[in-house]
Specification:
This protein has 458 residues and is an alpha+beta fold. Helices cover 33% and strands 23% of the residues.
Length: 458
């Protein structure tokens, strides 16, 4: 009985204690708050739905007294343009470029991909690294110039585009072709594609400014055959032809070689390496043979020395007991800067064999690397070098920078964030996120870059 009375008394005392208050949500910086709202807008491409993102960014610009212009393709794909001008610029400008669309989130996320969730010091969501964070950093730097009424020796253009994740044909490419007035006086572009190299303990080793990249050759291959019941003997069905043709294409031995931009990249990296890697990168022509590297390379580096072929989409039947009459595949080909795309395509058609229709979805001509000199590159070096050396970089991906290089405009890929391998795993994968402190440091870096670029003393 005494035990029962004690239990009742304890329960009464506990019920009188107010529940603990929930932990307060972390206070976000203004740019982090903008990014959180931006990540909550689902702009998965397809279909993109960039209008909602463009409206959001335009609202921020309007509140800051910066006029903007919405430019839509005939299908309604929205792009947003704004220009901060000064009579002292002579009409010359830098273009801050990012894309509003993102790849679909896919499976495997531990948080909702469009909730803008803050957890463990990170802001989570599709686009947190590719590429909405760069857009917010650029926007914050532009707003900073306006708020400070900073004197401008150059104009600054902010451009948020559609469709980059699908090749950029209904975004940057369309704008350049249909609205050249938006790019009047642009002498350089800063967009995505750069990287930061970190070492043990997250130490920042160097900043990689992308000046050259592989070229896309996206293909759709299709074939047809006699359809019918799955029980029938039909060795020449569309699916079988497709599988056999792709096997011939993928079975061709790869041919390795060192293209000039990759050689320059390796030589630029060499002084920053230990003795072993310094020798490899300084003598890369002796290391890379046509049938493959003669020595061990860092993981992923083989991509830099060959044209790659990756089958990414397969379409055939949808029932196990029905033979489809048509089958197709989409192939992501990445070409080295000096590869002859027409010769590569003809060889691919030969390997596939007869009976295939090959359609080119996206391609790009050769372009020279952007120069490692000039006003913008100097501003990048001046702003970033106090933290780590700056290395002109070649990447195996491709970005909208290629459209500007085709027109002789220097374009540079920048990631203003110090990121480790564990951070970049979320790009085009699950659980994409960015460290909140690193986002704010990225804002500071972009502010310094722009300040140096627009300064009359530059």
């Amino acid at each position: 009985m005494r035990c029962l009375r004690s239990s009742i008394l304890l329960a009464l005392l506990l019920s009188a204690v107010p529940p603990a208050a929930p932990a307060a949500a972390p206070t976000l910086s203004e740019p982090a708050g903008w990014l959180q709202q931006y990540l909550r807008l689902d702009t998965s491409n397809p279909p993109g739905n960039e209008q909602r993102a463009a409206d959001f960014l335009a609202g921020i610009l309007q509140r800051e007294g910066i006029a903007s212009r919405m430019v839509k393709t005939p299908e309604g794909r929205a792009n947003l343009w704004a220009r901060l001008s000064s009579p002292a610029s002579g009409g010359r400008a830098v273009l801050l470029l990012h894309h509003m669309d993102v790849v679909p989130p896919g499976p495997g996320w531990s948080v909702e991909p469009f909730a803008g969730r803050v957890r463990d010091g990170y802001l989570w969501g599709r686009g947190a690294l590719d590429d909405k964070s760069l857009g917010i950093v650029q926007l914050a730097a532009l707003v900073d110039l306006k708020r400070r009424r900073a004197p401008l020796a150059r104009d600054v253009i902010f451009l948020a585009v559609a469709d980059e994740e699908n090749g950029g044909l209904r975004g940057t490419a369309w704008l350049l072709a249909q609205h050249p007035e938006l790019f009047q006086g642009v002498e350089a572009v800063v967009g995505e594609g750069g990287r930061s190299q970190t070492g043990a303990g997250g130490k920042l080793l160097w900043w990689g400014i992308e000046v050259s990249q592989k070229r896309p050759l996206w293909l759709e291959v299709s074939t047809s055959g006699r359809g019918g019941h799955g029980a029938g003997l039909n060795p020449d069905s569309a699916n079988h032809q497709l599988v056999q043709g792709l096997a011939r294409l993928l079975g061709a031995p790869p041919r390795f070689r060192v293209s000039p931009p990759v050689r320059d990249y390796c030589r630029a990296m060499a002084p920053l390496q230990n003795k072993y890697w310094r020798r490899i990168f300084s003598n890369v022509d002796a290391v890379i043979a046509e049938n493959g590297p003669k020595e061990f390379l860092m993981p992923g580096m083989a991509n830099l020395f060959l044209d790659t072929v990756q089958v990414t989409v397969l379409r055939g039947g949808d029932r196990i007991n029905v033979i489809p009459a048509a089958a197709s595949a989409r192939i992501d080909v990445r070409l080295l800067p000096d590869t002859d795309a027409n010769a590569f395509l003809k060889n691919g058609e030969r390997l596939l064999g007869p009976g295939f229709d090959v359609k080119v979805l996206v391609t790009s001509p050769p372009t020279p690397p952007s120069p490692v000199s000039g006003r913008l590159y100097g501003a990048l070096e001046r702003a970033l070098r106090p933290e780590a050396p700056v290395v002109p970089t070649f990447i195996a991906g491709f970005t909208d920078s290629r459209f500007f290089r085709e027109r002789g405009i220097a374009a540079y890929g920048l990631s203003p964030f110090r990121l480790g391998p564990e951070d970049t795993q979320g790009i085009h994968g699950p659980n994409e996120r960015i460290s909140l402190p690193e986002l704010d440091r990225g804002v500071d870096r972009m502010r310094r870059i722009l300040s140096f670029y627009v300064s009359a003393a530059q």
